[in-house]
Write a structure and sequence with these properties.
Shape: elongated
Helix content: 55-70%
Number of helices: 10
Order of helices and strands: HHHHHHHHHH
Oligomer: single chain
Mean pLDDT: 88
Number of strands: 0
Length: 195
């Protein structure tokens, strides 16, 4: 049995993490992506810029986490059906993409992703992993209920769900109806169900 070496420096303060995330989302909603800077976030959060750079490599990753990972800590739905679970997950995603900070952040983030493939890869591996884990649990339950086959491609379904919401709400700017999540969930569930 071996123990990990003690961490150097002060332990991270969850309150400063939350203050940074909140300040980022507020600034992006108020001033837009381009006008949001690490310095402005640090000032609003009451932390030094070094505190931010120890946790995020730059503005795109910070903004992505602040704006597009708000549903990662919600309880994993267990409605008893795949369609019900997907509907619950999609409701959170629709709310996330419909938030003012999302609309303000999307154009700048997309430009940064296009200009930096390594950034795009880090976002996919680091920040989308919790969404994939949540969907894996939903899929495992659906497999046990006989709704879908084992080996259903989680990454592809996640891309389909997020892509539909992104296009409809984020890119086209449609005002989401209360039925949107359920309709998208039904379409996706129908496409992957066992026939």
């Amino acid at each position: 049995m071996h123990s990990s070496p003690p961490s150097r420096g002060r332990p991270r303060d969850p309150r400063s993490h939350e203050a940074i995330i909140s300040a980022t989302a507020e600034l992006v909603a108020e001033a837009g992506y381009a006008a949001t800077s690490i310095g402005a976030v640090a000032a609003r959060a009451g932390v030094g810029k070094d505190t931010i750079y120890r946790r995020w490599s730059g503005k795109p990753e910070l903004v992505f986490e602040a704006v597009f990972t708000t549903t990662d800590h919600a309880p994993i739905p267990d409605t008893g059906t795949l369609t019900g679970d997907l509907t619950a997950l999609l409701r959170g995603l629709v709310e996330e993409f419909h938030a003012p900070a999302s609309a303000a952040a999307l154009p700048g983030l997309l430009a940064d992703f296009a200009a930096d493939p390594a950034l795009k890869a880090r976002i996919r591996s680091d920040f989308l992993a919790p969404s994939k884990e949540r969907l894996l649990i939903v899929f495992e339950r659906a497999v046990l209920r006989g709704e879908i086959a084992a080996g259903t491609p989680v990454d592809l379904v996640l891309d389909t769900l997020a892509g539909a919401v992104f296009f409809h709400v984020g890119l086209v700017g449609e005002h989401p109806t209360p039925q949107l999540a359920g309709r998208l969930a039904a379409v996706v569930a129908k496409g992957i169900e066992i026939r």
